[in-house]
Every structure is written in C-alpha cells, then in structure tokens.
UniProtKB/TrEMBL annotation:
It comes from Fusibacter tunisiensis. PROSITE patterns: THUMP. This is Probable tRNA sulfurtransferase. Its EC number is 2.8.1.4. The lineage of its organism: Bacteria, Bacillati, Bacillota, Clostridia, Eubacteriales. Belongs to the ThiI family. It comes from the Bacteria. The keyword Phosphoprotein does not apply.
Length: 396
C-alpha cells in the first residue's frame, strides 16, 4: 500500500506565547478526531509541526478533512527524504517529471527553506544544485523564476520535505480552546453563520432552539436539526436544547402591549438561554443579530435584551451586510436549508405594529405583567435535547 504524507501549517496558534502547548495539544487532538475514520492514518506532532500520514488512496479525503479543522492555515502533500543532497536532487527530479507527465508542466523553480542550519549548503546553493540537476536530466523542462508551472519547495528540517501544492484551511483557533458558548439557533440564515464564526475562534458550541409547537411544525424543527447537522461538519458533535415557548407567547399576548410581542419574546429567549448556559457551563450567549436588519435589532432593542441577562451576548454578525452573511452561509453549506420556507416561532402572534425603540423601563414594567419565573421554569421543565454527532442524529 502506497503511503502519503501531509504537512499541516497553523498560523495564529503559534502567536500564543506561554499558552502555546495548550493550544497545540488541542489542535493535535482535533486533527486526530477529524481523520479517525480513515484506515491506518497517523498524526504526528513534532517540533511545532503536525504531519498526517495516510494511505495514498485516501489522500484527497484526508486533505479535505484536515482543511476543515479550525486553526489550519494550509496543508501540502509532501515527500520526505533524508538530508542528503544526492537523494534530494534525485527525488526532486522524479517529482518534477511526474508533474510534467501528469499535468503538462513545462517550467519549474526550486525554492529552499533551510530551518536546519546544520545542513552544510546554503539555500541558494541548494536551489542551484537541484535546479541544475533537473534542468540537465529533463530536457523538456525549463527554469522560470518568475512564473513557474511548478514551484517545488524544499524545506530542510530534521528531514527534508518537498511540496508543490498548497490547500487553504479555514484559519481560526482550535475548536474548544475558548470555552463554551450557547448559540441561539433559529431556522434562519444568520444564526448558523454566527455559530460557525465563533466556533472558528475556538468557542465550543451548544445550541438552544425555541419553537411554538403545534403552531410551528415538526418540519420546522427538522430544518433546525439539519442546520445543526451541517455545523457538526466543523464541531463534530452538537447538542441542541429544544424549548417550547408557546405558553410564554400566549401569556405575553394576553397580558402585555401587543407591539411589544417580539421584544418580550426575545427577552424570554435570552433568559432561557442563560439558564441553559448556567446548567451546562456556557460562558456567553451567541446570536445572529445584526444591527438594523429588523425592528428588534435596533440599538435600543439590543440594549433591552442585554440588560435582561447577566452574561455577555456575542453577536459576531453585528456589522455584516446581508450579502456577506449569505456568502458565509453558502460556504458552510447552510444556506439552502436556511431558506426553506417553514414557519418560525417569531411569526406566532405577530402584531401589526412593533416597537422599534423599546425602552428598558417600559419593557421591565411589561415583564411584571406576566409570571416570569413560573413561565421560565415550566418551559425548562419540558425542554428536550437532541444530540448530533458527525452529521448523524444520535438521540431525539
Ligand atoms: P436568523 O436568520 O438567525 O433567524 P434573523 O435575521 O431572522 O436571524 P431574528 O429572527 O430577529 O433575526 O433573530 C435574531 C437572533 O435571535 C437569531 O439570529 C437567533 O440567534 C435568535 N433567535 C431568533 N429566533 C430564534 C429561535 N426560534 N430559536 C433560537 N434562537 C432564535
Ligand atoms: Mg429569524
């Protein structure tokens, strides 16, 4: 069985100073989890570099899996040889010849990075020697230092690594290195994107979804589960706490000014999510809110929701334009699901007119008109949990 080696580069983790080992370990573990399904795959953590060794027939899929791990800047399939100039030049020749035959390359350039200063030749000397050797032995290939078809890099460390291709990763920080956040996951376009962006910064996600069954349908919940499934592409597992807020909405509808329906529901959502955070060790709430997009997302609306919870509310999309959000949604493959036309709990009891500039004191007064604690306890008592792992729903 032919084997291949993949060199994994990470960026920002390297800037982490004293904590670097903690981040590196998390990163290494996450890479291992991402490739565990492949036969005979080996992940090597060596001198601040990660290498993945796999069967050649899995190479493409392994590259795909690794580039989806947060923290990866880029990966390159690489050839590893001893630090011996004759072995290096011959193996480089074979590789250039292979690319000439397989991809029709006509020009090349050798680039050397000598991290191992114990190697007796300088980088320019190595370039000249290996380049000259290839130039002589393959008459069809010409050197082009400005725009070569093949840029073959030789990296001299404890071994010499050669590579000519680079696949971009997603960047970010290792998943789980920044504590846990509670994602308020609706069926819309924004919240999955918000969750993805925070996950990419290393935050572990646990989700809360609010519905108004039977006013909202089973299919609307299925849609949210499908979004969760898609997020596990990056998070591996995801728990979704599903909470019915119909009784809360009914009570608001009966007792409070009708134009405050949306903002009051939102306050309850935040408080319920905070309770879930307390229960599972979440350090913040994450929403897909975006300044000025809808009536409830004015600065005044955001102030009201903020003052009604004690933990930070992170809103990674606050300054995004809708087209930018949609771009990310398409990239992470949640867009098509998000635009399915199922009803949302926010549309239940929707009044004709909504307050766009709610006042903190007025909203607080309205909250006194309902049995706030009782409603919250009752909703939490009937909370359900959905666990998704690697795209599969485990429990419902
Ligand atoms: P989205 O596309 O994420 O639904 P939106 O632009 O439709 O966002 P809203 O419906 O006002 O905006 O919701 C703002 C945020 O509040 C959402 O991004 C989400 O984080 C949270 N939210 C709204 N509805 C729900 C729900 N049913 N369950 C969980 N969170 C919700
Ligand atoms: Mg919505």
């Amino acid at each position: 069985m032919m084997r291949d080696l993949i060199l994994v580069r990470y960026g920002e983790i390297a800037l982490k100073g004293k904590n670097i080992r903690v981040f590196q370990k998390k990163f290494y573990k996450n890479i291992k989890k991402a490739v565990v399904q492949f036969n005979d795959v080996k992940v090597i953590d060596q001198f601040g570099r990660v290498y993945v060794e796999c069967d050649s027939e899995d190479l493409e899929l392994v590259i795909q899996a690794v580039t989806n791990v947060f923290g990866v800047v880029s990966v390159s399939p690489a050839i590893r040889v001893e630090n011996d100039i004759e072995i290096m030049e011959e193996r480089a020749r074979q590789e250039v010849e292979r690319l000439r035959l397989e991809e029709g390359a006509k020009t090349f350039k050798i680039e050397t990075k000598r991290s191992n200063k114990g190697f007796p030749m300088t980088s320019p000397e190595i370039n000249k020697r290996v380049g000259g050797y290839i130039n002589q032995s393959i008459p069809e290939m010409a050197v082009d230092v400005h725009n070569p078809d093949i840029l073959l890099t030789l990296e001299i460390r404890n071994w010499t690594y050669m590579f000519s291709k680079r696949y971009a990763g997603l960047g970010g920080m290792p998943y789980g290195s920044a504590g846990k956040g509670i994602l308020l996951l609706s069926g819309g376009i924004d919240s999955p994107v918000a969750g993805y962006l925070m996950a990419r910064r290393g935050m572990e996600l646990e989700a809360v979804h609010f519905h108004s069954y039977p006013f909202t349908s089973e299919r609307a919940l299925e849609k949210v589960i499908d979004l969760g499934r898609r997020l596990t592409h990056y998070t591996r597992t995801l728990k979704i706490h599903s909470i019915n807020i119909l009784e809360i909405q009914k009570s608001i509808n009966e007792n409070c000014p009708s134009e405050e329906m949306t903002i009051l529901s939102r306050v309850f959502m935040m408080q319920l999510a905070q309770r879930v955070a307390e229960e599972v060790g979440g350090k913040c709430l994450i929403t897909g809110e975006n300044l000025g997009q809808v009536a409830s997302q004015t600065m005044e609306g955001l102030t009201v929701t903020n003052t009604n919870v004690d933990i930070p509310v992170l809103r990674p999309l606050i300054a995004y334009d809708k087209v930018e959000i949609i771009d990310v949604a398409k990239k992470i493959d949640t867009f098509e699901t998000s635009i399915l036309p199922y009803e949302d709990c926010c549309t239940v009891f929707l009044p004709d007119r909504v307050v766009t500039k709610p006042r903190v004191d007025k909203i607080s007064a309205s909250l006194e008109l309902v049995d706030r604690e009782g409603l919250i306890e009752e909703a939490l008592a009937r909370k359900e949990m959905i666990i998704i792992s690697e795209g599969e729903v485990l429990t419902r």
